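User: I've been going back and forth on whether these two constructs are worth ordering. Before I decide, could you fold them both?

Assistant: Sure. I'll take them in the order you sent them. The first construct and its structure tokens:
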Amino acid sequence: MPVIRALFRLIQSSLRVKVALSIVLPLVAILGVFTGVEYVRHREATLANLSFVAAQTAQVVENSLQHEMLSHNLQGVQYLLDGVGQDKKIRAIYLLNTEGRIVFAPEKQNLGEQLDNRDATCQPCHRLPVAERPSSVVVTLPDGQRIFRSMDPLENRPECHQCHAADERLTGVLLTDIWVAPFETQLKSDLLENLGWWAGTILVTVGVVNFVTGRLVIRRLEQVARTLTRFGRGQRDLRLPDEGPDEIGQVTAAFNEMGLRLHAEETQTASLTRDLRHLASERRDLLQRLITAQEEERRRVARDLHDGLGQDLAGLAFGLEAVERLGGNPLEPLRAHLRQLRAQIAETTNRVYDMIFALRPSTLDDLGLAPALRAHAERALKDTGVKFELEASGLTRRLPPEIETALFRAFQEALHNVARHAQASHVRLSLAAPDGHFEGEIVDDGCGFDVDAIQPNEHSPRGLGLLGMQERVTQCGGTLVIYSRPGAGTRLSVHVPLPEAGND
């Protein structure tokens, strides 16, 4: 079985073997049929010749016997049969009387023996009617050997009447057995010789055809295969030589045309790719500058609000409180009005500080990412009933400012979505920075959503917040992945590579 499998793999992988088989198999079939037919015809012709030889031999012997018998030279009859019996191809030659008894035989063997026509070797003829019995037949002996038996009746001629009754049709029968084996050996020898010529013809034909097809077809196809293999591995500048207008030449021309077109398209694609990368690089730089400028403007506005308007409102509140304390009982309506103004000023002050925190929390610059997110979560989720949990034990050092800002804005948007849309009762935020990269995850047990359905387009702003989060994380060279489905909550995972500590 391994040999058969190996041969089958060889046939599948080799075009030369397939071509050889396409020649050998038809030749084997055609020559096999022709050889079989020729062998059968040759065998039949040999048996016919054998029958003719046997008939001629019998005729010669009969004529000689007639001459000796008419001369009453019985000794001459015996000498004649002795001479014929010396031929090794003749198994037996008997002169039988009309009763089937042997009266003459070479070396007087089996004289007087009565042949029984019920014997198996006699049945091929004697089981047939007299008119249908053949004069010769091939008989198989009990030991398996085959003989060619001919029965030549001796007619009762007028010259024989002096010894035989005139009313007898026959005077006897000449039985001749000739060995078939020598002739079959010759047939087998001829068959083997034919098979040898047949095999030689096939080998020579296969060799010549392989040589011719190898030069005219296989070599060219192998060149095409090698070129296609190298072309498929990226060598796009390969071309095949033009070798004529035949089918392989047409394939070659089509390949060369395809190669030229593909090379031109790849050149154009490479140029477009370079332009696209340049535009993407410019876009990233522009976006980074925009984000940086935005954060700087937020920081400036927050500082101005904190240092200017915030302090002015605080001073105004303190002044109103002082006026309220200086007044007497007759001025009770005025004090009530002042208390109302002070409450409005306090509410306005809180609103201003909320605006300051939204613009740029000072906690982020002063204390870092975790405290800023905790402070923002307390403000954003204060009136929603959502329980907030922060795990930042894995964050042991400050991150670069631009990364802290981007991460803060991403998680700020996530907490804003939880407060507005998630309908959650619990949200957990974990921060860590192991092995030179930042890992953050925020998980809620809310209603969830179909991520694929939240895509911004020109008709709907849905998903712009998620897109902004993605852009900020991408600017840091990181990735943001959102896992959610309706009814199963939402998990947002952030991964950002960190620069080495010396480059912070």
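The second construct, handled the same way:
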Amino acid sequence: MSDQPPSRPSFSTASRWRIGLDKVLRTALVLAVAGMVNYLGAIHFHRFYLSSQTRMALDSRTLAVLHSLTNRVTVTLYYDRQAEFYPDVVALLNEYRAANRNISVDTVDYNRDAGKAEIIKGKYQKYFASQADKDLVIFDCAGRVKVFPGNALSTYKVELKGSHPSATDPQKPELEFERRPVTFNGELAFTSILLALANPEPPKAYFLQGQGELSLAESGEFGYQKFASVLQENYIAVSNLQLGHQGVPLDCNLLIIAAPKTAFDPGELQEIDRYLREGGRLLVLLSYSPQAAPTGLEPILRSWGVDVKEDIAQDFDHATTSQGTDIKVYQFGKHPIVDSLSQFYLHVYLPHPVLKMPVAQSATAPQVDELFGTSPGGTLLLNRNEPPHAYPLACAVEQKPVAGVNHPRGSTRIIVTGDATFLGNLMIDSGGNRDFLNAAVNWLCDRPSLVAGIGPRPVTNLRLHITHQQQRQLSWLLLGALPGGVLFLGWLVWLVRRK
């Protein structure tokens, strides 16, 4: 039997309880701090850009579409993960998913997962143009499917390799060209698709023809093919219309008159006037010619408080040519259409002044707002005697609802611009022209959450031009000097430690 006394416990019961309670309290404190950090982060933290390539946050119009989306949307990336813009597409869709949890994203690499790729092909077979289709973004909302090709997500420019003669190799007689990405159009395309999936029936726009107006099918510099594509991106169905005895169709949500060159018949003017009195929506884009014959629209517009001056406004302080034909417009009014353009400019060509007329103040009088105009140094092309001052170049008209009066088409809205060329193929991508068109058509169609427009995002290309001699020196530096320097420092350390 041992004579040693029994060992005493290291901690008393009270000590163990104190230690246990301390651990519980510390754990609860850590969890509480983590919860508070996550709560504050969810409220105040905002991502600033999508990826290192585009460095752009989601546009306000995209966020408005996402916040209004209540149905579940499955996005399938049928894509090669080595494709050039694949990381940007994934980053963009992750931003969409972060803004609305009803969006789920699935990636199928057809090169690495042939089995899953065949399942996707079988499921969406009728949406594949051919079995060889690759790099597709597939949106599926309750059986409504939209497919967007990956090769249309960016625009490219073919240019000579090397932007300066010193960057070219004198030993190579042939010129070398490269295909360089210029813009990334992912957000523009994806938001348009979500808008189409969320709204089965698009608003309908009619593009008036018959008086020499511009053409939606024309791809030349002064055509309106890009104009038509902007309407489609905003999920607005557009078709041509020739006015006759039938008048403006009842399903017309927006009537567009772009640069008419001849006068309308009295019967056609009567139909246009009736359309506006019934609460129609009208976009008028005037011809740039200073001596164009009156179209007959002028009295109708004056009845709504807008006067078009038969002259051309010039602004040599902001002209891009010595003749003053092109103007960069920085002066904007206060209106939802142009509120988002304050950091941009509009690029217009030989615009007519579009003036707000004084109207009697009454409950039934339409509200007329000037949208944009020249600087205070603006002048007129024909009337040189008029002193310089600011000339408005566009106006917006809105007839507020009147109690007891119901119009079959709603409340009248009109936009009149003194130029049509700035929204043509040549100039629509200059400055904020495209964004103005986005905002204008959505305001006319009474879609306030979509008034802010989305344009293509520029792609930043960082290039370093070096000669062959500089390339050899760089190779010796990277492969010789740097590793050699590390070895030399290691040898010095070894010497010091030996001593």
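Notes on the second construct follow. The chain is about 30% helix and 20% strand. The chain has two domains: 60-184, 208-446.
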